[in-house]
Each structure stands twice: as structure tokens, then as C-alpha cells.
Amino acid sequence: MTTARDLMTSPAEYLNASDTLDVAAQALKTSNVGSMPVRGDDGALCGVVTDRDLVIRGIAEGKDPNSTRVDEVCSGTVVSVGPDDDAAAVSKVFSDNQIRRVPVLDGDELVGIISQADLARELPNDQTGDVVQAISRN
Question: Where does the CBS domain lie (predicted)?
């Protein structure tokens, strides 16, 4: 049985809620990713920030990238899976929440990230198509 641990990229990187938009943009660029989980002051994940968040909720709204905190523009909802969740459960999380990346948490610890591409590499083509279709629905 394939689990989230088998699918995930690890170690996972994250941003701190107090990081500024310019720090976030550089981290996304350096890691060559479009999103990163955000860790709050208490150490727990408090959101996910995407490159789109930085542009639409930050720059386009006139916020100063050198002083605006990531937690001002990130999504506050964190949908995650556990490392022992099977591939079917992970697929369901992607489909039900229409997301393209999901953090893998072992308790409160971020241990990995699963992307849509990671899932697609492991699932049969017909299941991959179903997940992509569900993620892309309006």
C-alpha cells in the first residue's frame, strides 16, 4: 500500500508568519516552488502562501513587500494529511479541497509536501485524471 510518506517530498520547507513578502518570494524562487506552508509564532502551521497570494493579495493591493508579513496574505486554512495515510485518502483530500499541494504532518511536525505531480506519478492514469478533474472543477 502506497502511503503519504512514499509520495511526499521531504524535508519540507516552510515560511514563518513574520517573514515579509520579499523573503517569501525569494524562498519560493530558491526552492523553485509555487507555494509553501506558513508556520505561526507558536510553531504550528497557520496557513499556506502561494506565489499568487504574494501578487494578488500583496503587490496588487499596494502592500509593501519589504514590510508586509506573510500571514497578512496567506490562506488561513491548512488542509493536511498524515504520513501513514494511504494514496486513496490523499487523493480524496486533493479532490475534496481542490488543492494542488498538501502538507504532510506527523502530529504538529511538518515532515513533507505532496504535490499533484507526486500523486500523478503513483496513481494509475484513470485515477490521476479523476483527481485532476476534481481539483479543476469550478
Answer: 8-65, 74-131
